[in-house]
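Dear colleagues,

As part of the handover before I leave the project, I'm documenting each prediction I ran so the next person doesn't have to rerun anything. This entry is a single chain, and its sequence is reproduced below.
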Amino acid sequence: MKKALFLLSFLSVQLNAQDTLTGLNKVFLKSLFYDVHDIVRTPFHSENRSLLIGAGVVSIVTASFLLDDEMNHLVRKNRNDDAEFWFNYMANPIGNLYGFTFVAGWYFKGIMEKDNRSKNVALNAAKAVLINTVISQAVKRTMKRDRPFQLYDADADDSFNPFEDDKTNDSFYSGHTSTAFAIATVFADEYKEHKWVPYLAYGLATSAASARIYLNKHWISDVAAGAAIGYYIGKVISNGTNRKYQLSFVPGNKILFSLSF
């Protein structure tokens, strides 16, 4: 949570942008409100095709719980130093430090090049990180699932302890994975005219997800749920880029905010 707030603080360098989403300003806060609104309401106002896709994703995530123990045992039996280094220092930070640094760097790139598109996509990614962090922390503190390294002999079925007063039980769902997929989705959607971007973005996100399993930090179901939720949040925020924001002054020095689609 602290790292997500730090990212937003870095992106607040342009406080005077008023007509577009290019800084941490009133427009940003308004767009954040509408993004949260859309994330909550979209499942209840989707077309049949979207509902079918959503049902399919939920089914896959649910089925992944059946693989928790098998995958965990498989990973423990096939660990080696080279893979340990790769997953620990290269892949794992993609869902945390590397991802945040990239988003902040992309925003800085937009400032240097006076490119509002770069700043806009970086801010959308930052919103995705912030919203995902709040949701994931709420779920973690409710589900209270033991991480794999905490259960050497017990089955994954015994890992859930809802509402238990233990801050270390925060396995479900994977915040690293959801963060990586949220950022990947925002960039993949924005730069989809470059066919290689989605492949690279989702490939890196998948690497982060794989690291969480290999490093024995999460069950495969934690990662599956994290990927689905991160993708969903990123997709909703990306769809919201069609909004146009304007700040206008009216008699009495009042500021009106208008939102159009």
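DSSP finds ten helices and two strands in the chain. The two ends are 31 Å apart (CA to CA).

All the best with the project,
I.
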